[in-house]
């Protein structure tokens, strides 16, 4: 039986500091049927030179595609659209895959029908001699433990069961993890579309929840990826979701998953939508008055 092709998708932008670690981890996968797809947002450092040097060192196909910068979501989507694989395995330029990551994720996905997403625990790694927010690490290290009634175990579960949890949209809003911690079947994009480019930080959260009504979700109770915290992005992960995303995300979830949610979360979502609608209405009135 032929193994399905997995596209390891690496969106890049000025990632020279850590891209070599990411590439080495992709090339060290025990799963053999892979390709590496890079979508670069006009990097001005040595990112592309480093990637090109690795093309000469491996038989594994490495595609490099250039993308006109228009937001991180657009680059993610561009990377996916260049991929030939049955599965999409994101690997961000700062992160690292454990050698068995792809093999174990594909095995779980292939072991049950209609699995759209597989996620795993992740290890958080740091730059040496750097002091990062220990509270953030404590709160976000074990995302799979932050559900109300779900006891997440190794295996698969209907996505609609996730959506019914009473704490679904409570903090941390993203209980699945960053894209590096996720394997996606290509049919997800045929069914529910691509990442929403109007969002700047919450686009992964919105996507995970958008596909849950249609697919099973798989979980692997192992740290199969390393998520890196460093100066360039530590401030990003510690920031609250931007105001634009806070306003837009509830509206999107209202349209896509409202009727699948627990009543507690339905009420919460309606309150958030109403709140931001009122704020927007108030600001429009203020602007009109100021223009007179």
TrEMBL record:
Keywords per UniProt: Transferase
Domain (Glycosyltransferase 2-like) ranges: 7-143
Matching Gene3D superfamilies: Spore Coat Polysaccharide Biosynthesis Protein SpsA, Chain A
Superkingdom in the source lineage: Bacteria
InterPro entries associated with the record: Glyco_trans_2-like (IPR001173), Nucleotide-diphossugar_trans (IPR029044)
GO molecular function: hexosyltransferase activity
Pfam families linked to this entry: Glycos_transf_2
Coiled-coil portions: none
PANTHER family on file: GLYCOSYLTRANSFERASE, UDP-GLCNAC:BETAGAL BETA-1,3-N-ACETYLGLUCOSAMINYLTRANSFERASE-LIKE PROTEIN 1
Protein name: Glycosyltransferase family 2 protein
Origin species: Confluentibacter flavum
């Amino acid at each position: 039986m032929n193994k399905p092709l997995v596209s390891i998708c690496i969106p890049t932008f000025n990632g020279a500091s850590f891209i070599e670690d990411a590439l080495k981890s992709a090339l060290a996968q025990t799963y053999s049927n892979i390709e590496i797809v890079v979508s670069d947002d006009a990097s001005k450092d040595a990112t592309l030179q480093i990637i090109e040097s690795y093309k000469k060192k491996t038989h594994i196909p490495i595609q490099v595609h250039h993308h006109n910068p228009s937001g991180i979501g657009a680059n993610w989507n561009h990377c996916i659209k260049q991929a030939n694989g049955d599965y999409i395995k994101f690997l961000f330029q700062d992160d690292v895959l454990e050698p068995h990551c792809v093999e174990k994720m594909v095995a779980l996905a292939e072991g049950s029908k209609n699995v759209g997403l597989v996620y795993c625990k992740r290890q958080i790694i740091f730059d040496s001699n750097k002091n990062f927010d220990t509270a953030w690490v404590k709160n976000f290290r074990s995302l799979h433990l932050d559900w109300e009634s779900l006891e997440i175990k190794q295996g698969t579960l209907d996505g609609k069961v996730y959506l019914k949890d009473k704490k679904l949209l409570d903090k941390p809003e993203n209980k699945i993890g960053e894209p590096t911690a996720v394997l996606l079947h290509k049919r997800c994009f045929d069914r529910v579309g691509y990442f929403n480019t109007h969002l700047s930080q919450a686009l992964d959260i919105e996507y995970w929840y958008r596909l849950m009504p249609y697919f099973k979700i798989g979980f692997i109770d192992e740290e199969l990826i390393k998520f890196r915290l460093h100066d360039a992005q530590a401030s990003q992960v510690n920031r609250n979701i931007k105001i634009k995303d806070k306003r837009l995300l509830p509206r999107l979830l209202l349209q896509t998953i409202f009727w699948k949610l627990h009543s507690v979360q339905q009420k919460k979502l309606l309150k958030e939508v109403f709140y931001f609608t009122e704020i927007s209405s108030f600001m429009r009135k203020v602007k009109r008055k100021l223009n007179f």
